[in-house]
Every structure is written in C-alpha cells, then in structure tokens.
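Action item from last week, closing it out:
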Amino acid sequence: MALMDRLPKHLFTNRGWGLLAAGALSLGCAYVMGRRDLLTLAVLLILLPLVALAGVRVLKPKFQVYREFNPSTVETSGTTTVRLAVARSSYSTGHVIMEEQLPPRFGEPPAFRFPARSASGGTSRYEYHLRSGKRGQFRIGPVTAEFSDPFGLSLRRHAIDDGDILTVTPAAVELPVTGLAGARGNDGVTATRIRANPSDDDIMTREYRHGDPMRRVHWAATARHGQLMVRQEESVTTPEATLILDQRFTAFAAGTGSVFGSHDENSDLVTSTNFEWMVTAAMSITAHLAERNYSLRLLDAFGSPAFHRSRSAPDAEAEEFAGVGGLQAIAESLAAVELSGPRHTRPEHHRTEQISEHKEGSPGSAGTENADSPFNDRLMDKLSAHRLRGPLLALVGNLTPAEARTLAPAAGYGANAFALVITDAARNNEEILEILRVAGWRAAAVTSKTQLTAAWSAFDAGGIVAAADAAMDVRRGAAVPR
C-alpha cells in the first residue's frame, strides 16, 4: 500500500495502476514462457487504462457555474455567504466530486458531490460562508471537478469556471461627535455667514425676489447692475471636506511599519501596519462625514485622485464622492489600495536619481523633479480650486522637515486644517508638528497602536479655534518656519 500511495493520483486510480502492473507482469511472463494467450492478456490489461486515460481527457463534461456573494462586498471580520449553482450542460457522467478553490487565508476548500441530493431541474445548489480578517480582493474559485471513466481506471481534475472576485473592504470605526465638522444645519447643509474679508468668489448680492424685505436692498449694487439687488447675508451650501491620503512607500516603510505583502493577486497587498492604520482612519473619517451629508474629495500626496492606483476602485479617476453611493465607492476603492512609489529608505534618494537622469539645465528636468515631489503645485492648485469650502484633513506617514514645510501652506486652503502623522515614534516628531502647527494645521502624531477614537477626539480639545486662528494668520501673510 505504501507503494500505491506514492503513485500519481492525477493519472490513474489504484485500480488503473493495478491493471497496468498486472499487464506488465503478464507481458514478462509471456516473454519468458512464450505463451501467446498471456501476451494477449497483457496487451488488454495495458491498453484498457490507457484508453480510459485518453477518454477522460478528450471527452470533457461541460458545466455552468453561477456564484453569488451575499453581501457582494464584505467588511473585514464580517461574513459573506457564497451561493453556488452548478448545472451540467453536456452528457452525463454520473457522480462527480467537486471542490471550490480558495486562497489559503480562508482555510480548507469546501468539497461537494454533484449532483446534490436536493438537485432540482438539473441544477445543484450549495452554500458556504467566508470571513476575512484583512482587506483586499480575493479570487474565489474556480470550482474543480474530478472525473473518472466508467470503469474507474483513470482520473482527471480540471476547472469548470474562472472564479469570481470577492472584495473585502476595511471596517469603519465609529467616531465620536466633535466640532471638527463645524456648525451644522438641517438636511446636511451648513449655514455660513459672509466673512469679514470676502473673496471675489463670495456671492454678496443677488437679484430681488418677490417677498424680500426692502431693508435688505443693496443700493450700491442696484445702481451698478441697473436692477434691484438685495444683500446675501447668509448662504446655505452643501458642506465639503477634502482628504489627502499619503500612499508613498517611503513614508510607511520604516521601523515597526515595515512593509509586507506582494503584488500577487491572491497574496497580501503591499502595505504595513502604519498604512493599515491610515486606511482604517480614512474609512472611518469618510463614513463619519458622509453620515453628516458632506461631499468628499480624496487626493493623494501628488494631487492625483487618491485611488488611481487601486485595482478595486470602481472609477480610478474619481476624486469627488457624495451620498451612500459615494461612500460605497470609497470603501471598495480602499479595499485594494496599497503603497506605491520608489522603494528607497528616504524620499531624497528618489529625487537624486531623477535629477541625475537629466543633465543639468536640460528641458523638463525641473518639471520632472516637481512632479515626483509630494505636496507639489498640482496638489496646491486642486486645493485652491475649493478654497475655504470646508475642512481639510491630511493622513500622512513619516515626513521629513522639508516635506512638512512643503505641506504646511496647504492649511490656508481649508476652513479648518487637520493632520494625522502616522509614525513609529510619536514623541520624535515635535519639529514636524511644530512646522505644521505654526502654518495653521491642527496636527497630531500617532502610531499604529493609537486608538483612532482618541486621535479623533484630540482635534476637539480647543484645536478648532486655534487651527482656524492660525490658518487665518497664514492667509494674512504669516511666514512658515524654514
């Protein structure tokens, strides 16, 4: 039996190997004894398994497989139910043993017998449950079936479908209510007074409408426009929030935040413990704001759409999200977002390489360096386009002082500016935090062990007023420390 266990099972069954052994023995005896009948028996015993082997490979039964996930996307640590429907679309081969192939993280693959005892209309239905403790996209399937010939001599296992992708999204942490979102009105709108020093984009007056009190008539505007105009003392707008999500490999690849994973489809993402903390924070913050009817804009550190490299993003070029559909799109996009960029220990190494590739003074060299630098002009231009329309939140990894100074002026583009610096040693970032705070950011350093609710609540400890005042100072011309 030990010898039989060592024989390959994907070619013949034990019965098939037994016939081949008997045929070989008969052939040897026929040669020694000169018996023609033993030769005939030997040929029969050898040909029968070989014919069976050819038959199961040429005549492939065809099946139709329908797979459904309920829910279609599942949060980490949540459970999804997989429903399988299998129907034969070719000739009958009797009972078949089938197995659903799964990534190793989901445990042993489920096996089942076709047709099922409860099969109806030629279709067998099966059901099982999956749970994943990590986010990502995982191929569930294909279903493999093990076929045998009518005599049970040969075996063949092959896939009968291509499988389907299960998306596991990060689970949001419920955040406490803070003053970060500012004063709120009904139905998710914000009532904002006209500022003392309005910009040209502010709507100060509008046309007179029937029923407007005459005391609100703006006579100077009326004379300028040639028609009756009234003061717009209060505007009602949908609140907006902008998030900057740092996804640079160099910002999250040090110390305890060491990177793990690979680009293989069924392997872990290129990520780290610190980056996973940031992804959870992004999911939680966007859910918190979406529940309060904020429209959301998500950008990366280079001003590109935050999910333009995420293979799970429904629309990789989208950067504006609103409503329940927008929040679902963010969740799906965060499922497979991962670290990207050069694999150097410090970002300066990459800049040096980029500069060395272009001769000094060559056309386009300065533009290339700027495009590859985080918190560049492209990001600032996009923030400027939505200047002061709502809070600005930055979730960044380890920063150098130079990168902090580059990011610092962005505080002037948000009604309030908040930054979480995810690092390995929160106490060693005072210089970085000071640069951001002086520029108007309400900044805090956290580690992967920091409670997200505690980090979120820290923004409410008098920070909104301080951040708003500091940001106003910056807009008035206060210098950023260098």
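Closing note: The chain has 14 helices and 20 strands.
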